[in-house]
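Input/output pair, single chain:
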Amino acid sequence: MDGYLGVIVIVVVVALLAAGALFLLFRPGGKAAPPPVKPPEAPPLPEEEKRPAGAGEEAEGATTTLPPPVKPAEPAVVVPEIEVPPPSAGRMVRLRSRLARSQNALGRGLLDLLSRDRLDDEVWDEIEESLITADVGVAPTRVMVEELRTKVKVLGSRTHEEVRALLREQLLTQVNPDLDRTLRVQKHGERPAVVLVVGVNGTGKTTTTGKLARVLVGDGKKVVLGAADTFRAAAADQLQTWGDRVGADVVRGPEGGDPASVAFDATARGIEEKADVVIVDTAGRLHTKTGLMDELGKVKRVIEKKATVDETLLVLDATTGQNGMRQAQVFAEAVNITGIALTKLDGTAKGGIVISVQRELGVPVKLVGLGEGPDDLAPFDPEVFVDAILGE
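Output:
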């Protein structure tokens, strides 16, 4: 019996030792597990971001709320200062010196010729040549020379003052001070007056339109401008600049758009805003197959669905001489010209175009450009013009 107990004890001890060995052999990793790694602490917040929890926030787990970003200030919109142009009255008198500088050579030359002791055929030929060179025109020149020859014979002796008076009388007669040079810019009840500005590109048409707006604003009228020259890229922008300077609304359309549509919208705007005058700048050439004159006729017809076209001003460059005369004839055949605006009259000694264009078209010169400044467009005054030619 004792022998069995000994065997049993030995077996139990061996079994325990085998179990311990197996546990050590098959334990995961085979080594003792390392201690857990402590996560790094978060860096402290900057001082400016630390603030106590506000009312209603829990002390534990409270979050820091950053202020919203400051919105950058929008740039201020620069509103152009509205200019107040001078009134039209007396403008040509103020600009007379500019006219005199360019035209005085003509007047002085004629006075010197007429003051000679002996006026033979050769001298009269020189007088005639001077007038024709100044673009007075052949027919008016011959009339003037014949009148002067007759009066000189009757007068006999001639002082400088007498010769000047004779020449002044003849020039005034040819310029015709009796023509009605009034701009038709009076409202018709609730409807504004409409001025259509025509002429070829390069004569200063758009600039004259802008300057005319200044003349009318200076006279106390409310003006709307229509940029119907849609085929010249810079025309609408140029007119917009003129309008902004005097506070005149500008109606414009897309580049290459229908000019008649712009003219119609400008007239409608003038009626809506109770304007006194609507001035419509038209194209001097087209990029389509439609003839320029047909397009101008269409513009006028469309305007007359809303209002009356009171003035159709033809802009001519005084320096172009007889070429300008041909332009005038073409426009006169297509549209009813009521007045002429002569630009660059201060830059030429050929002021005789005033006489020839009036005689050819039968319409008066109503406006003259006497410089490059914004207020150098003036209502034409025949007496100031003739006196500037002859000098003091």
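The longest strand covers residues 309-317. Residues 29-33, 45-61 have pLDDT under 50 and may be disordered.
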